Amino acid sequence: MGNKSRNLFLIPYVFWIALFVVAPIILVLFYSFRGLDGSFTLSNYQHFFSSTYFQLTLSSFWYAFLITLFTLLISYPTALVLTKMRHKQLWLLLIIVPSWINILLKVYAFLGILGTYGPFNAFLDVIGIGAVQLLFTDFSFVFVSVYIFIPFMILPIFNALDKLNPAFVDASRDLGASSFETFRKVIFPLTINGVKAGCQLVFIPALSLFMITRLIAGNQVITLGTAIEQHFLVTQDWGMGSTIAVFLIIAMIIIMFLSGNRKWGLTSGKKA
Amino acid sequence: MKRLTTAFIVVVVASASLIFLANHLNASQGMGGSGTITVFNWGDYIDDELIDQFEEETGIRVVYETFDSNEAMLAKIQQGGTSYDIAVPSEYTIAKMAEDDLLIELNHDQLPNMTHLNPDFMDLSFDPGNKYSIPYFWGTVGIVYNTEMIDDIDFTSWDDLWSEELKNDILLVDGAREIMGMSLNSLGYSLNTLDRAELQEAKAKLQTLSPNIKAIVGDEIKMLIGNGEAPVGVVWSGEAADIMYENEALDYAVPEEGSNLWFDNMVIPRTADNIEGAHAFINFMLDPENAAQNAEYVGYSTPNLSAFELLPEEVSGDERFYPAPELTDRLEVYDNLGREMLAYYNELFLEFKIDLR
């Protein structure tokens, strides 16, 4: 294929990226410098560094960290087991299926499940613990978020594990390493890219969750996403909302930089 | 390359013919023509029979669309894709829309049934002289509570919410104006105050309510209170009426210190095509019999005095939804505070939410 026609094929993508990636970011940046009266100002940034938003940022990061950590702790062993199964693609599919269901529906389902008269509490009652308040706690917030993010963590880890050449593991065992040592020195380092990709896919959205904070946590937990939603919809203070969004973008760039990997572990599931 | 070009042409031709077909269909349905009006209202907020009746009487076809928040409605009207002839926003949104020049002035000569409206609900601060809007329904903000779970508090005062036995029992709606207003009212201040010291005081008082607050939620509050998830909720009267209809143990009270009086008003947005038809629709809805029928169906309070007299005694005599004049005098309508003050209300509410735990 000639260079010319290749450039021709590029046109739609360039347009797409310009319209839906570059332009929105520029707009967000632009609005972040606008005050309530529409003038150019730095006051939004000044405001962001006040105690309110600082506290909000800290708590958002803390919860996003907890969510990512628990998601990883559950997903890695699951992915490891999955790769050892006979019908692994089928099992993987079963784990992915819940992510096809609208997130709002799933969250609403949890309202019922975790409620005072829900099955979860009925179970606790039967085994003698007695009903406890689950809804509107930070526990339920982290629990539901982890549930929702698990597929996004499992997929890249599964792909990384699946591509791992079993000869490395065999060699490690042959040379006398215990299973734990093999995992620590061979399996985990070789799949670290999958882990990084998974963490990015979870951590960034977890920073800006807002629906779950209201529905499941009843605003007992609030994140930067809550503040953005409120500024855009209620206050109509697009400037402040954009400023918070700019900080989310910066946070994202920092995290991508720190976890700096170029491979996303998302390529085909075929063995290398 | 050739195949790509062919594919491109096919797509263009197909889309063009689809657009033509859609236009043709819309035209044959009379959409956008002079014989129809498009009404944009809240969900489940009209008796459908009245729409049929209106179509029969006037020969104007009604296209009915619904929205679930003032903000969503405003966004669609600003964007201007559909020619809405009637919309039913709440009072603070009307003020905003009037400011942004999104409304058409009403011609009162075409609305003879206006005389039936209760003068108390006319000429209010958000729309002086009813230049742009005609009241559709009204209501209050108050406390809905489960009498089976709470039997010794009657919520005649906002301060009852602060009582120690209600620990972790209260649900609040996620609205800065409502919740800040409730705290301001409990302190005896106006819920439209522009005094930052009063607002700080209200926020401080609100923070002492934290141990009693179970959650701050959105529309789910209806479901949660209805299911008995929490015994007490601060809600709009209309939502209370909805769930009281389903759960008999629930009762509703408007505290005596005063509260918010809200309105949903009919307006004609700038997007309107059929201004005459829109006036006919408003006038039709103001007819006492129609308004009474609508009020009975929807269950909200009607601002139409003649219709109110037509309502059965058990509805019109219900002081929870048609409060006595002594109380109505203490109710306040939200003023348009201006962006800066509104941002300040929200800022304080956000700070309160951050410190909730």
From TrEMBL, chain A:
Bilayer topology: Multi-pass membrane protein
BP term (GO), one: transmembrane transport
Keyword Protease: no
Domain ABC transmembrane type-1: 57-259
Cellular component GO terms, alphabetical: plasma membrane
PROSITE patterns: ABC_TM1
Protein name: Spermidine/putrescine ABC transporter permease
Species name: Jeotgalibacillus proteolyticus
UniProtKB/TrEMBL annotation, chain B:
Main location, first listed in the record: periplasm
Subcellular location as annotated: Periplasm
InterPro entries xrefs: SBP, Sperm_putr-bd
Domain of life: Bacteria
Keyword check for Signal: yes
Binding annotation for spermidine: Y92
GO molecular function, one term: polyamine binding
Pfam families assigned: SBP_bac_8
Signal peptide: 1-27
Assigned keywords, A-Z: Periplasm, Signal, Transport
Biological process (GO), any one: polyamine transport
GO cellular component, one term: periplasmic space
Full protein name: Spermidine/putrescine ABC transporter substrate-binding protein
